[in-house]
Structures
1.
Amino acid sequence: MAQAQALSRNQQIVLNIIEKAKGPLKAYSILFNVQKKGINAPQQIYRALDKLIEMGKIHKIESKNAFVACRSSDCEISKATAFSICESCETVDEISDTKLSKYLSGFNHKKGMKFKRFNLEFFGICKKCKKD
Amino acid sequence: MAQAQALSRNQQIVLNIIEKAKGPLKAYSILFNVQKKGINAPQQIYRALDKLIEMGKIHKIESKNAFVACRSSDCEISKATAFSICESCETVDEISDTKLSKYLSGFNHKKGMKFKRFNLEFFGICKKCKKD
DNA sequence: TAAAAAGTGTTATATTATAACAAACGTTAT
DNA sequence: ATAACGTTTGTTATAATATAACACTTTTTA
């Protein structure tokens, strides 16, 4: 079985910031937050982000160009991602719903394409925002 | 019933280009293609794109920052979009699958959020590319 | 321990998207 | 018809997001 890959220095720094955050972080906001640690250039952030995504440690929210930590422990390599996004407060939750995930993983295009990966983003107004 | 909205000059120009294209177009590639028509600035493109999206005439492929025409005639306002994307040739197809669409439209988050809209992007290698 | 692979630091630049303002156009209500 | 309003346009400038390219170091593997 593939061993959990060790993180390099920069990867660890970037992951820590994302994990501590309450919501999705943008690449440049991560950059500003790690300049005290000697990381000075966007490249360093983007390289770390790329690897963390490959490892399944984080996900990119495509509609927001932002990054969140993966909360589902079994998500070694992330082939199936689903998020719920509040259009008012911008809160993002990762959805882990076995049924949904199975349904979509089994879905194949009529034109003969077999899917390896999907990303699903739901939008709405969250409970909290609805009250206001 | 809401009348089909008339398109303004720039909106029509931009929509024409997107409809003629074989695949998704990027905003700046649209811009270069319409400079002969007197459109000179990104703003003009992005403004048209925004309106066309609102009207459901086009969709944005978030993972590619690119835009495609909507092929499903009933898609007046696009609340439910699904695409199949080939990671090799970059071909993008809009998926119109009633079952899928119903399944996802009926999906609601456990945390009490009611979704108004979703976007789903599937990735894989298409039939054609598999042969090579 | 040499070779290969992965990671780092850096400068520069490409790509994608929005801000802000003034003028023209289109609709509707009077 | 025309004033008032909203929408669209044109324009300049700039913000935000992301990659290219190169030289060097560290880690892994054979």
2.
Amino acid sequence: MPIDPPADAPTAIADPLLSWFDVHGRHDLPWQHPRTPYRVWVAEIMLQQTQVTTVIDYFNAFMARFPDVYALAEAASDEVMGYWAGLGYYARARNLHAAARELVATHDGVFPRDVETLMTLPGIGRSTAGAVVAQAFGVWAPILDGNAKRVIARLAAVTATPGTAAYEQPLWALAARYTSTHRVTDYTQAIMDLGATLCTRRAPACSACPLEDRCQARRKRITADIPARRKKKARPQRAVTVLVIEDEVGHLLLEKRPPSGIWGGLWSLPEIAADADIEAACRERFGLDVVPDVPMTPIEHGFTHFLLTIHAWRVRSLAATRIMDGHAEWFARDALPGVPAPIARLVDTPQHDLNL
DNA sequence: AAGCCGGGGGT
DNA sequence: ACCCCAGGCTT
């Protein structure tokens, strides 16, 4: 696969990019003021596969509750997960919490200043480690997030398919080559900003781009073809049944999901196989005698790799509060822990939306 | 090397 | 309806 990097690359890329950044870059993101290692780290984890506009409110709420690495390390897992509910990729929250405890336990709460050590912490890969040291410490390190990938792939006309080694490997080499040896904090922010605001996936604003005359994709008129399209795969359809079980005082039975898999570590409505018998399942899992009440309108939810139809049944619990395993608890409706977004919608469904 | 993990937003 | 997004982990 041909790679065609611009000639005299390092400063020929960094200098015009930095000049553009001074005028058009994003200088008011919450994690930039103050720009502490802890805040940069949390922001970078939240921003993995998640857009800036989505992250901002979560970031501010998270910082208000967990203002430093010690507050995070000391917090209970459920509370951390609760602050993550709705953001997705919940392994990020579990890893963030584990890393905070590791930082306190083995690094005395002080962030390592080098990429290799940071990468030993759970949830921090090469790109996130690079972003943290560059943004928090001004230490030279390449980053390669989705924005930088697209910018560099177009600059050097890398036409390989994303996700393959033919794409990722040259991009890392080029990312290191272009990364400025001065103002590295601004450079890493600049290349992300360029990708996010000008060099967008569709309809890039090439005429406003400070690198237009260096861009090999532009020169070859193949900008729209980079990055190459991934081959689409069919998403299988699955179905589950969840139970809205209320006791006599209106409390809701929730179950903590296993740490890995869909919605890992989050509290959710008890889930049973789509074809399972509701009464038998409740007797076996919770020791509860129940009466299935009414089915609710099914919810369709799309995941990256499959489509899920969620059938929900409202269930009355006859006997009181037996729970046979340690993964289920009763919660008052006004004191629910964080639950996945589709489940939150189900739980909030008013009575008149029942599918009678 | 490829699959898994999610919710939100843009077009 | 489809695509992508401040990726990392697992197999």
